[in-house]
């Protein structure tokens, strides 16, 4: 008999409210910086992949985020795109009840090129997944924010996905891995096309998931990512009523090895395309 998952422990409402307010303030700060600097003389340093840049803006925003979080939430570890685990924090999660996860510029290659498609992402997490999450979309002057059990908002306006929805004629978002297309990606695109669904690679995992939350896309499939790429957007997805599934098709608030975020009526079909693509690759 499979044990039922342990429900999330009650979190002090005042703590959630404070985390929500601080995260929103940091998202607004980041949006202003990204708009002011994108595509304007940025000097990227290539790392393992030529499209995985580290920029001065990313480092500056992450330092600012860490400084504010250290003041507001002392002792809570911070994980980030630019600096990994905060040196002053305990190793790994270190028994801490909460942790922060930040990607200061999600979609750095777009940012460097001046393409208007990148984001700032921040989430506070516990053992059960995101507690608070924000995604700043600077070019559309939007701050998307959510807190567990309190719903999701876009610039203060509540957002909730409808239960139904037509897949045909819709869009599915995905992203490349560090090394290029993920195994079975070509087959997945073929499966989607057969169902008259388009596939888009836009260069920001956080914004790919957010498009599902906003109803612009029917699903997002990510085969490879880091926690900070997706944690903020997964908070939005859960609170807006999207299906958040792991590679096996199981509900999971923070999948670790492949994820599917979908409108409720599209989840089963899109997961079937993904599963079939994997079977062709491994068969």
From TrEMBL:
Cofactor(s) this protein requires: Mg(2+)
Cell membrane found in the keyword field: no
GO molecular function: inositol monophosphate 1-phosphatase activity; metal ion binding
Residues reported to bind Mg(2+): 81, 103, 106, 229
Catalytic activity: a myo-inositol phosphate + H2O = myo-inositol + phosphate
Gene Ontology biological-process entries: inositol metabolic process; phosphatidylinositol phosphate biosynthetic process; signal transduction
EC number, as in UniProt: 3.1.3.25
Gene3D superfamilies xrefs: 3.40.190.80, Fructose-1,6-Bisphosphatase, subunit A, domain 1
Keywords recorded for this protein, A-Z: Magnesium, Metal-binding
Domain of life, per lineage: Bacteria
Record carries keyword Metal-binding: yes
InterPro entries linked: Inositol_monophosphatase-like, Inositol_monophosphatase_CS
PANTHER family for the chain: INOSITOL MONOPHOSPHATASE, INOSITOL-1-MONOPHOSPHATASE-RELATED
The protein's name: inositol-phosphate phosphatase
Source species: Saccharopolyspora flava
């Amino acid at each position: 008999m499979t044990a039922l998952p342990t429900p999330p422990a009650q979190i002090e409402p005042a703590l959630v409210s404070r985390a929500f307010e601080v995260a929103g303030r940091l998202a607004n700060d980041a949006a202003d910086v990204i708009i002011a600097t994108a595509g304007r003389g940025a000097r990227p340093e290539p790392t393992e992949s030529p499209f995985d840049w580290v920029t001065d803006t990313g480092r500056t925003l992450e330092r600012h985020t860490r400084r504010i979080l250290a003041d507001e939430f002392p002792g809570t570890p911070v994980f980030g795109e630019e600096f990994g685990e905060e040196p002053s924090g305990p190793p790994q999660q270190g028994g801490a009840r909460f942790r922060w996860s930040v990607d200061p510029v999600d979609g750095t290659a777009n940012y460097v090129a001046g393409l208007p498609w990148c984001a700032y992402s921040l989430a506070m997490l516990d053992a059960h997944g995101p507690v608070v999450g924000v995604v700043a979309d600077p070019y559309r002057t939007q701050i998307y924010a959510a807190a567990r059990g309190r719903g999701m908002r876009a610039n203060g306006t509540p957002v909730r996905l409808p239960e139904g929805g037509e897949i045909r004629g819709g869009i599915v978002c995905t992203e490349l891995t560090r090394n290029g297309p993920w195994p079975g990606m070509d087959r997945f695109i073929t499966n989607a096309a057969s169902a008259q669904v388009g596939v888009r690679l836009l260069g920001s995992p956080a914004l790919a998931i957010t498009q599902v939350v906003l109803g612009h896309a029917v699903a997002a499939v990510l085969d490879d990512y880091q926690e900070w790429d997706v944690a903020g957007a997964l908070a939005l997805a859960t609170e807006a009523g999207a299906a958040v599934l792991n590679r096996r098709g199981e509900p999971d608030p923070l999948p670790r090895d492949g994820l599917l975020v979908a409108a409720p009526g599209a989840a089963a079909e899109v997961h079937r395309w993904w599963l079939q693509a994997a079977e062709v690759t491994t068969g």
